[in-house]
Amino acid sequence: MEKSYCILIVDDDEDILTSARLLLKQHYSNVHTASDPREINSFLTKYQPDLILLDMNFQRGVNDGREGIYWLKHIKEVSPETQVILMTAYGEVEIAVQAIKSGAYDFVLKPWTNEKLLSTIGTALKFSRERKKVEQLEQTKTTLEDSIAIKNEDFITKSPAMQNLMRTLEKVAATDANILLLGENGTGKSVLALAAHRMSGRNKNSFITVDLGAISHSLFESELFGHKKGAFTDAKEDKAGRFETANEGTLFLDEIGNLDMALQSKLLTVLQNRKATRLGENREREIDVRLISATNMPIHQMVNDHQFRQDLLYRINTVEIQIPPLRERQEDIPILAVRFLEKFCRKYHKSNLRFSPASMDELYQYHWPGNIRELEHTVERSVILAEGPYIEQLGLHLNNNTDTQPNGLNLEEMEKHYVLKALDKNRGNISKAAKDLGLTRAALYRRMEKHGL
User: Fold this and answer.
1) Nearest Cα to 371, choosing from 432, 328, 417?
2) CB under 8 Å to 401, separation ≥6 — which residues?
3) Which residues contact 269 (CB under 8 A, 6 or more apart)?
4) In this structure, are strands 275-276 and 285-286 parallel, antiparallel, or unpaired?
5) Are 189 and 183 in contact (CB under 8 A)?
6) Mean per-residue pLDDT over the chain, rounded
7) Coil, strand, or helix at residue 367?
8) What string of DSSP letters covers 38-69?
9) Which of 65, 216, 388, 450 is deepest in the core (most CB within 10 A)?
10) 47 — pLDDT class (breaks 50, 70, 90)
11) Residue-wise over 85-115: b if at least 16 C-beta within 10 A, else e?
12) Helix (H) and strand (E) counts for the chain?
C-alpha cells in the first residue's frame, strides 16, 4: 500500500464516491471524498492532496462541463502541483480534451475499468513526483549559486584537539541530531558543517547554507520559508524557501546568534512543527531537514541576558561543539598555509612558489585573531605580491603584546592598537571586542579589513 500520497475524489454521486474510495483504499491509505466541489478549498488547505479525481458536472441535467473546467482552473491556481484527473461521460470527451489544455493531467470515462483508473492515477502520481524532483533540483541549483560559497575541501588537521573534535563530529553526523557549532570568526564552522553533511546519511541530498546575519528582517520569512507569486511587490514567481530546498538534506544556519527575538520565535515554530508555510499561502508543507547551526557569539550568556530564546537553544544544540581558535592549534598552521599557497598559485598562475624559513616563522609567531580566514587572506595577498620563487615577508605584525602603546599620536596606529587590544582581550570574539570598543560588529569588521587584521 502506498502511504505517501493523498488523493481526493470529488463527485456528487455517492455511488461513484463509494466505489472509487473502496478501490483506491486497497492501494492508497490516504483517500478522501467530497460530494460538493465547494469543499475543495478546505481539503487543499488541510490535506494538500497530490491528486484530485474531479467530476465535470455537479448540477442535474447539466453536461457542458463548465463546472469541472471552473474547479480545475481554481485548483491549478491555488495548488499548481496538485494533479487533476477528470471523470467524464463518453459524450463529454471533447470537453475533457479541452480541459487538459487548461491543466488537467488526463481524464477517465465513466463507468471506468479498475485497471484503467489505477493505471492513470499511478502514471499521474509518478509524473508529479518526478516533476517535484526536477523543480527541487532547479531550486537547489539556484540557491547554491546565490548562496555564500562553501569551501569544497576536506577538513585536514594534525592538532590533537581538532582530531578529537572530528571523532565527535563523525559520531554525531551518523545521526539526525541537531548540531550547534561554536567558535570565533574564521575557525572553519562552515567547513565543519559541510563535513558533517558528507559523513551523514543525507549526503546524497542538498546541503543548503543560510547566512542569517546577512538576511534582512523583511526578507527572513521569504528566504527561509518561501513565497507565492504576488505575495509582495517583487514576488514575480513562486519560490521555495531554504527549508524546502534542503528537504531530506542538511540546512546550515550560520550566524544564528544574530537573529532578533521576533525572528527567533518564527524559526522555533517551524522547528517544533516541522512544517513551513510560504508567504501568501495558507497551506503548511512538511519539512525534513537535518539542522546545523553556528555562531561566534556567547549564546549561553545571551540566553541569560534574555537576548536569545532558551527553548530555541535547546532545539538547535542537541550536540554542541566548540571549535578551538587557530592560535590553539599551531600544528595546523603550516598545513593550511601550504594548502592556501597551492590554491592561490593556481588561481594567479604562479608556479613553484614556496614559503621561506623566515615567512614560516612569521606564520608560527603571529596571534591570528582572524583565525583561518585571516590566514587565507594573508597567503593570497602574499602570492599576489610575490616576485621571486619564495614568499619572504608576510607583512604580519608579530608584536602581540597589545599593552604596548603605539609610538607617537598617529590616529591610524592608535586605532589599530586598540582594535588589536580588544581582540586579544576577548580572544578573538568579534561581538565582545566590538562592545568593548563601542562599535557595531560591521564597523569593527571594516576597521579590521582597513588595518589588514
Assistant:
1) 328
2) none
3) none
4) antiparallel
5) yes
6) 84
7) coil
8) GGHHHHHHHH--SEEEEES--STT--S-HHHH
9) 65
10) confident
11) bbbbbeebeebbeebeeebbbbbbbbebeee
12) 18, 16
In DSSP notation, 81-146 reads TSEEEEEE-GGGHHHHHHHHHTT--EEEESSPPHHHHHHHHHHHHHHHHHHHHHHHHHHHHHHHHH
Question: Which one, of 408, 405, 383, lies nearest residue 394 by Cα?
Answer: 383
- Please give the full DSSP string across 147-198, using - where no structure is assigned: SPPPP-S------HHHHHHHHHHHHHHTS---EEEE--TTS-HHHHHHHHHH
Terminus-to-terminus CA distance in the chain, angstroms?
A: 62
Residues 6+ apart with CB under 8 A from 377: 370
Q: Running DSSP on this structure, what letter comes out for residue 2?
A: E
Which of 99-108, 366-375, 418-427 is the least confident region?
418-427
The angle at the Cα of 54, spanning 53 to 60, to the nearest 5 degrees, equals: 140
pLDDT at 52 > cutoff 90? yes
pLDDT digits (tens, 9 = 90+) for 244-277: 999 999 999 999 999 999 999 999 999 999 999 9
The verdict on pTM exceeding 0.85 is no
Q: Distances in Å between the alpha carbon of 7 and those of 3, 128, 435?
A: 11, 13, 57
CA–CA separation, 40 vs 283, rounded Å? Answer: 13
Q: Quote the cell numbers at residue 253.
A: 544556519
E strand intervals along 258-414: 275-276, 285-286, 290-295, 319-322, 354-355, 390-391
Q: How many residues in total does the chain contain? A: 453
Q: Which three cell numbers stand for residue 182?
A: 561554536
